[in-house]
Write a structure and sequence with these properties.
This protein is of the alpha/beta class. It contains 7 helices and 7 strands, in the order H-E-E-E-H-E-H-E-H-E-H-E-H-H. The longest helix has 29 residues.
Length: about 190
Amino acid sequence: MKLFIRWTILVIILILAYPAWLGYQIWSQSHNDELHSADAIVVLGAAQYDGDPSPILKARLDHAIYLYDEGFSATVFVTGGKQPGDRFTEAEAGRMYLESNDVPPEDIVAEAGDTTLESLQQVEAASEGRGIESVLLVSDPLHSERIKRMAVDLGLDAYTSPASYLELDRSRATKARELVREIASLLAYELLGR
């Protein structure tokens, strides 16, 4: 019976330790801006309101404009789907915002996807005919670890450059909830492939 109890305790410790380890990796990557030239900048979608980017999407797009203007890439992918009843996808709202901020239409590729993985799969598929092998991923800081893993698993050479938390204006409580959500999302991706 003592051996069973010891094994049970060991299993419980391991079950708790792995999510904690993922949390550390997510937190660590969120503080790592991997500014690097790439074949394309990829902006992950976020909410939009009838074609106008939400503050979160705007922060991501503004960061992508900075990266584009600084010459990190000459191509910008914008991604994201739409909710029922929406007239525009997040990708379309992103494209319109980039164009209104002087990014030429020929340098923008819009790819709709309802999830992070679907968006990155769309980017990977669209990249094949364009000679795109490396991407500079733009999203929220705590999203960076998951999107980088997904992009690498899809065969892309991936770097992350998250939007600034200063512009995103998030509280510590919000960051803590996002961290827990990212741990759960990364576990779902690793265990279920979604």
